[in-house]
Amino acid sequence: MLAACLGLAGLASEGASADPVADFYRGKTISVLIGVSAGGEYDTIARLVARHIGRYIPGQPTLVPQNMVGASGLKMINYLASVAPHDGTFIGMIQEGLPSLQAVGMAGVQFDAGKFNWLGAIAPTDETLTVWHGAGVATLDDARRRDVVTGATARGSITYTFPTLVNELLGTRFKLVTGYSGGNEINLAMERGEVEARNNTWSSWKATRPAWLRDRKISIILQSGPRPADLDAPLFADLAANAEDRRLIEFVLSGTALGRPLATTPDVPPERVAALRAAFDATVKDPDFLAEAKSLRLDVDPIHGVDMQQTVAHILDTPPDVVRRAKHLLE
Predict the structure, then answer these.
(1) What's the rounded mean pLDDT across residues 182-204?
(2) Which of 52, 23, 34 is nearest to 91 (CA)?
(3) Do both 295 and 218 map to the same domain?
(4) Alpha-carbon dihedral 116, 120, 123, 128, rounded to 10 degrees
(5) Of 230, 255, 280, at which residue does a domain stop?
(6) Which of 194, 202, 203, 287 is the least buried, fewest Cβ under 10 Å from its Cβ?
(7) Claim to verify: residue 228 and residue 132 sit in the same structural domain
(8) Residue 84 and residue 89: Cα distance in Å, rounded?
């Protein structure tokens, strides 16, 4: 009788200690989709996180990064929303401006960013407008005097909207050339002399082209986002003519508060979302992760998933008058 009771107690204890999240992920693969081509900041960060986060997810699944290029990440997020399983086995490195595209009702949007489960980002971003050294343009005033051929991926991407908004509000003459599959391709086009300028983040320049900064191959003539201590360039919002223009800038460039965000699909069970968020938070404190991030010249100032969820909700709740002003820029 005693042995039977002990056996039942053991079974009860084993049942109580079982982890359904670990049971689900054990032996599985999590696909980490990246909506732009290899070699840029999005790709580098996604692959960095994928190399480290698996050991912090219960069940220790394998993470496999995959590039799914198209329309500056729109193809990838639409796939996550409508095709990928909604069970926590797919994570996307989401383009920072996609929630604002939804807010203005851009054609082709087949996702609801508010229903995605946002996991975190390693740091906020500071967007820059950057000109190649041979262009003869070193200031905003220079960019007001002549056309500056500017590379971009597609309409609706930050590489398109940032210089276009600067043209509209500050009278510059950035001439947009679209069709590049990612930031690395635009960089190559700058080297070849096809384009003279581009939008990029300060963190990306430091991580992917430190020699350009060292050798003064590029001039950063404007920035927008949390002002980094190591960059001295005019801040876009400070140059706004009025409060309405500042609100427009904040909305169009709202993705800076999201950094390079990771999210999983809608409808994932809450306990798996919580586990993925906890795994991300543990990863960005991990000594091996931090050492590799430092070697890649990546800043780490984490944004937590719960905070990111609120930021996305705020973007989607932008007042209609601001949305109307931004619509032609983001479509």
Answers:
(1) 94
(2) 34
(3) no
(4) -10
(5) 255
(6) 287
(7) yes
(8) 9
pTM, two decimal places: 0.84
The range of the structural domain enclosing residue 305 comes to: 25-124+258-330
Domain count of the chain? 2
Q: What is the pLDDT of residues 2-57, one digit of tens each?
A: 444 445 444 444 444 589 999 999 999 999 999 988 888 899 999 999 999 999 99
Do 263 and 117 share a structural domain? yes
Could you tell me if 135 and 243 lie in one domain?
Answer: yes
Across the chain, what does the average pLDDT equal? 93
User: What residue spans of 2-97 are helical by DSSP H?
Assistant: 2-17, 20-25, 41-53, 74-82
Q: Residue 130 corresponds to which amino acid?
A: T
Percent of the chain with pLDDT over 90: 83
112 and 132 belong to one structural domain:
no
Of 6 and 85, more confident: 85
Lowest-pLDDT choice from 15-29, 59-73, 172-186, 278-292:
15-29
Which domain CATH number covers 310?
Answer: 3.40.190.150
With beta carbons less than 8 A apart as the criterion, state whether 103 and 255 touch. Answer: no
Give the integer Cα–Cα distance in Å for 238 and 211: 29
CB 148 within 8 A of CB 296: no
